[in-house]
């Protein structure tokens, strides 16, 4: 019987996860099926139950995307420390009635930076834009890489300040990394005069084509500008390119977080380079 997996979101039509996981399965010789399921906004838990109950083979796991990661966190009967830190779950594993929750987004970003992009966060000045689920999921993994500085900036300054406060203990435990969110929260225009080696856009502004009011000075010489949104050119990428930064989108993170989920489920780590190349049409 084929083990079943799925990704849940709303919307979900755009998802590349079914293709990524079927490429991983073919590469590693794993017999799995993987589908994309749109859940009603108020019907995430019911959709998961229906998925577990239905089908020809056993339901083994699920990926979870916008807007259900926090709900997946609550649904999980047990959670990994990194899911606890993120306050959100993107990978569920079903086992004899138990639902384990993990968050592979941070690991995916770090692996993309270090393995695919040659950008070691250690010692770098990092600016993280956004304070939603994606930003929350990458803060601790970034801090564990010992950057020189991590500044969180968000449109809603209060949310940024609250997030920084939540992670204050982790910041404090990491000597050499200054917690640089201003007490009043860092606004985008308030970043004037600051420079960063790595600027990560974890906002969803790119999805609507919105321009972030970023001072161009934030992009230091040889800066890497990382847009978490993938599959489209966003205003952030344009801004960064015009400021002379090296620019990448979030496709590598997507593939790497999927590889981490695949490893959790199947105990085999797939090679990501050929999958990334296939998805980017290279
Ligand atoms: P959330 O809805 O939780 O958070 C959205 C964030 O974007 C908030 O900080 C919000 O600010 C900010 N934002 C939204 N619109 C604007 C705007 N017009 N101007 C400025 N800020 C804005 O989303 P997530 O954190 O879950 O996801 C963020 C993005 O990351 C998504 O686009 C998602 O596709 C991408 N992502 C990519 C992954 C990958 O593997 N490549 C993995 C996970 C996410 P405010 O608080 O002020 O509302």
Describe the overall structure.
The protein is of the alpha/beta class and 282 residues long. The protein has 2 domains: 3-103 and 253-280, Rossmann fold (3-Layer(aba) Sandwich); 106-249, 3-Layer(aba) Sandwich (Rossmann fold), CATH 3.40.50.720. It has helices at residues 17-28, 44-53, 69-75, 81-86, 105-116, 133-143, 157-166, 168-173, 205-208, 235-242, 251-266, 273-279, and strands at 3-9, 32-38, 59-64, 78-79, 91-95, 98-102, 125-129, 149-153, 178-179, 196-201, 219-227, 246-248. The strands form 2 sheets. The chain has a 6-stranded mixed beta sheet, with helices on both faces. It binds NADPH dihydro-nicotinamide-adenine-dinucleotide phosphate (NDP). Residues 66, 105, 108, 130-135, 154-156, 159, 202-205, 207, 210, 212, 228-230, 250, 253-254, 257 line the site of NADPH dihydro-nicotinamide-adenine-dinucleotide phosphate.
Give the ordered list of helices and strands: EHEHEHEHEEHEHEHHEEHEHEHH
- CATH architecture of the largest domain, by name, is 3-Layer(aba) Sandwich
Hetero groups: NADPH dihydro-nicotinamide-adenine-dinucleotide phosphate
How would a textbook summarize the main sheet? 6 strands, mixed
Mean pLDDT: 92
Unreliable spans: 181-185
CATH topology of the largest domain: Rossmann fold
Q: How many beta strands in the DSSP annotation?
A: 12
Structural class: alpha/beta
Sheet with the most strands: spatial strand order = 2-1-3-5-6-4
Q: Which CATH C-level class of the largest domain is it? A: Alpha Beta
